[in-house]
Structures are given as structure tokens and as C-alpha cells.
Amino acid sequence: MIDWLVFIPACFALNLAFGPNNLLAMTHGAKSGVILAQKAALGRLLVFIPMIITSALGLSVILTTSALVFSIVKVVGAAYLIWLGVSLWRNARTMETDALSIGSMTSGQAFRAEALVAISNPKAILIFAAFFPQFVSTDAYWESYAMLGATFLGLEAVAILAYATFGKFASAFAAGKLPALQRVSGAMMCLFGVLLLISPQPTRS
How is the chain split into domains, by residue range? Predict the structure, then answer.
């Protein structure tokens, strides 16, 4: 039986953890509004679904036992995060803070960015592989894994809304500082890329 009293708060803490995707949701909320940020975040959620299924099948062992595969995924993911960070920084130079609209980024562009950031980090699937098994019911493995996955995705949507709303309010109270906020976001994205690049290969317990 799933211990929901432990799983839900622990899971929501993971959902709320500050990382590349949540930073992106906050940036989208600040630049283009909460609605676009929520639409874009569907890209993240759709990527997480096959990751959860993959961890349930036990295929995450590939990333923990193959140094070559993990390194390839890690380098590609880090390169994308750094490229995205540099793009955010450079775009801040020409940003018009008095003409912010949903047109500053299309839904498709934001959707792709969320999906690519989610899939570029090999640690995401390892979270599912290491965290979920602690709560899976052995006598109803697939049912309990599906319930855990659905709960995770629901809590992730709440976290996305929180970050997007925070970004929107931050931009409203400091509209003139929005280019600076975007530069900070770009720098943080580059930092996440560097940290991913130097992170060691995890091991399975």
C-alpha cells in the first residue's frame, strides 16, 4: 500500500525544487503570461510520461551502468542548457519591456523549449527510478506505479503554475527590470548546464 502521507509532501518538494524547467516556467510567465507558461509546460509533462514508464520497466539501469551512454546524454543536455542560457541573455538586449505580449514567444517555441530541457537532463529518469520504488506496492506493481506517476504529474502542474505566477507578478512589480531578470535567467541556465556537465555518473543502490 502506498504511503501517501509521506509520498505527497516528499514528491511535492521535488516538484518545487529550483531547476532548469522551473526556471523556464518562471521566465515564460514573466515574458508571456501564466497561460502560455502552462501551455508550454505540457511539453515537460509529455516528456515525463515516457520517462516514468521507462523507469518502471527498469531501463534506467542503462544510464547508471553505462558511463558512455550517460556521458553522451549529459554532454548533449549541458550543451543545450548553455545554448538556451546564452540565447536568453542575448535576447534581453533588445527586449521591449513596455510592449510585452504573448507574441514575445509563440506557444510552439515555448513548448519545444520545455520539452527539450526536460529530456536533456538524464537525472530526471533517475529521480523516478530511485524515488518511486520506495513507495511502490509489490503486490500491485503496475497499478501503484501508475498512481505514483499520475500524482507526480499533477503536483508538477501545480509547481509549474506557482513558478509561472511568481514570474508574472515579479515582472509586473519590476517591469523596467525585466531585461535584467532575463539575463539572470540566462546566467542561471548556463550554470545548470555547467553543473550537469561536471556531475558524476550516479550509481544504483
Answer: 4-198
